[in-house]
C-alpha cells in the first residue's frame, strides 16, 4: 500500500516541481519587461513573446550572427543605442566587452525595447503594426519597409497580407510564432490584441 502511494506521489511531486519551476523561469523577468516596455511604449505581452521566441529567457545565449542575451541584441544596435542616448560611459563599456555588457538582462531588454520602438516608427499608424515591427526586428528595417510597399493610393496591407509578403521563411516563421503566442496571451486575458 505504501509503495503504491509512493509510486503515485513521486511523479505528482515531480510534475508539480517541473510546472512551477517552468512558471518561475518564464516569468522571472516580467517586472523588467513591463518597466522597459512601458518606457518605450510597447505592449509587455508582445515583448515577453519576443523573449520567449528569441532565447526562452536565457540571458547567456549567443546567436550565430553575434546576437547576445535575452533579446538577442547585436553589438551594432547597442552601440547605436548608446550613441543616440548620449551614454558615453556605456559606449566605452560596449567597446571593451560588448558580450558581457549585453548579457546583463536589464541592459539587454532596455536596448531591445529601444530598438523595437525605433523600428516600429514608420509602421506605428498602420494596421497590425506589430507584424511589421517584429519582422523589422528580425530581418532589418529596410526589408520590412520593402515588404510593406504598396502602389500609390492603395490601402495599407493587413497583417496577414504583410506576412505573406515576407520572402524569408525563417522570418515568416518567427513573426507567425511570436504573433500566435501574443494573441494567445491576449485571448487568455480576455483582451483584443
What value does the Rg take, in angstroms?
20 Å
Q: What amount of the residues lies in strands?
A: under 5%
CATH architectural group? Orthogonal Bundle
Query: Which whole number gives the mean pLDDT?
Result: 91
- Gap between N and C termini: 52 Å
- The counted number of beta strands is 0
The figure for the number of domains is 1
- Using the coordinates above, name the CATH class: Mainly Alpha
Written as H for each helix and E for each strand, in order along the chain, the element string is: HHHHHHHHHHH
The helix/strand class is mainly alpha
The coarse silhouette is globular
What name is given to the CATH topology?
Lysozyme
Number of helices: 11
Enumerate the spans where pLDDT stays under 50 for 5 or more consecutive residues: none
Largest sheet: none
As a percent range, the share of helical residues equals: 55-70%
Give structural notes.
- By secondary structure, the chain is mainly α.
- It has a single domain (2-188), classed as Lysozyme, CATH 1.10.530.10.
- Helix content is 70%, strand content 0%.
- It contains eleven helices and no strands.
- The protein has helices at residues 2-27, 30-39, 44-55, 75-85, 88-96, 98-102, 105-120, 129-139, 141-148, 159-165, 169-188.
- The radius of gyration is 20 Å and the shape is globular.
- It starts with a helix and ends in a 5-residue tail after the last helix.
